[in-house]
Amino acid sequence: MSHIKRNDPFYRQIFRLTLPIVIQNLLSAAVSSADVVMLNSVGQSAISAVSLAAQYANVIFMIFYGLGTGATMLSAQYWGKQDIHAIELIEGIALRFSVAISSIFTLGALTVPQLMMKLFTNDPELIALGTAYLRIVSLSYLFWSVSEIYLAALRSVERVTISTVLNALALGLNVGLNAVFIFGLFGAPKLGVAGVALATSIARGIQLVCCVVTSCLSRNIKLRFSYIFARNKVLFQDFLRLSVPALGNDLVWSVAFSVYSAILGHLGSDMVAANSIVVVIRNFATVFCYSLASVSTIWLGKQLGKGDMPGAKKDASRLLWLTISAGAIGGVFVLAASPFVLGHASLTDQAMHYLKYMLLINSYYVMGTAVNTTLIAGVFRAGGDSRFGFICDTIDMWCYGVPLGLFSAFVLKLPHLVVYFLLCTDEFVKWPWVIARYRSGKWLNNITKEYE
Question: What is the dihedral of CA 440, 444, 447, 448, to 10 degrees?
Fold first, then answer.
């Protein structure tokens, strides 16, 4: 903490950018928490089913995050050159991919939702509940594919407050509509799990409308649907070169986590229910860390676009120290929240036993997540170094984490909590390589070009 000086203008500017994103991420975590709390009145099966079905939304989000990060990597550096036209062309390229990919998930959720649920669980009750959820939530994927890319474009030019307001609107609506459709308020039917899905779809649809309105009123970054079809060979090739590894990185990471959930899902509904609550607490604990990762890409990318390599290197070091501090605070938060969570969760005795120790494991696991996320998804990507993260996470999660989880759970048949502990070692295994990459300075690159 000695590295943090309150009067340093750098920290004032970083917190100015970070605070709106923190609020946005807190609201997102709050919505997940609200889903769990509200479904608590419906039953443990409802919580477990939504937790498993929402794994597809998690994968989709990571796809959008990867595409958005790819766009931000380029856009932040062109923002350093004040080239708005290039940023809008990059936005159009990202939309081309996000809309196409979300259409595939929407079609799958509409036509084969039962098969999608069977990938995560063999419990007939959870499959039936999750199937109903997926069919109704399917349209939200399309709405989300447009709004998420536009919000990423806004963040890349440091308009983080508007991005946060639009996300806050969607999340606030989601919580309010959850209450209406779960509890049957104002004469609405009590829909339970289906109500959560309906609330999500309506909220995402309204958010998209608000994005279009904001674009019409904006004086710089517009949501130009015609740019989806615009052709620019240089920017397209740069987007693919930078975004494909970033997207691949986020996909291998998110799909691996979904496999983790599938492993836990096949260990029983008690493990699933406990994990669904742990994920909510972990999301709150890491909110500042993920926000710093986003800010790192924007801030350092702008500096690198200007050609200020020494300044970017110095600020990357300060951002890393901020992340370490945030990770420590996140671990304390998990420990402090544990008694409250254990005192109010309505789970079976076995699920409560799992929950107690899973929270303890996450009190230190958040530090591993914090450091890796800021460096891989923030600092490295600011300089276009997305390939390293893709390779690192692919090896770590698919050659170590997933095989270890499957082997310990289904071959060795170790106790469930031991399996969970082993799954939570993945972040620390890659620390030596990630830190070595950071110290090498190979991520310090200006990636802007003449594109006309």
Answer: -170
SS3 135: helix
For the stretch 72-123, pLDDT in tens is 888 888 888 888 888 999 999 999 999 999 999 999 999 999 898 888 888 8
Q: Show Cβ contacts of residue 240 under 8 Å, excluding neighbours closer than 6 positions.
A: none
447 within domain boundaries: no
Calpha distance 304→311 (Å, rounded):
9
Instruction: Please answer whether residues 378 and 296 qualify as being in contact, where contact means their C-beta atoms are separated by less than 8 angstroms.
Output: yes
Percent helix / strand / coil, the chain, rounded to 5:
85, 0, 15
Q: Measure the CA–CA gap between 178 and 46, rounded to whole angstroms.
A: 14
Total domains present in the chain: 1
Could you say which DSSP state residue 220 is in?
S
Model pLDDT for residues 389-434, shown as the tens digit of each residue = 999 999 999 999 999 999 999 999 999 999 999 999 999 999 999 9
Residue 450 lies in a domain: no
Helix (H, G, I), strand (E, B) or coil at 227: helix
> Would you say residue 290 lies in a domain?
yes
Domain that holds residue 318: 9-440
Res. 443 pLDDT band, cuts 50 70 90: very high
**Between 389 and 163, where is the model more confident?**
389
CA nearest neighbour of 389 among 425, 319, 442, 447: 442
Place of tokens 């899973």: 358
3 domain residue, yes or no: no
Token pair in block for residue 32: 């997940």
* pLDDT value at residue 410: 95
Structure tokens at 59: 């994968």
**Which structure tokens are listed for 146?**
């447009």
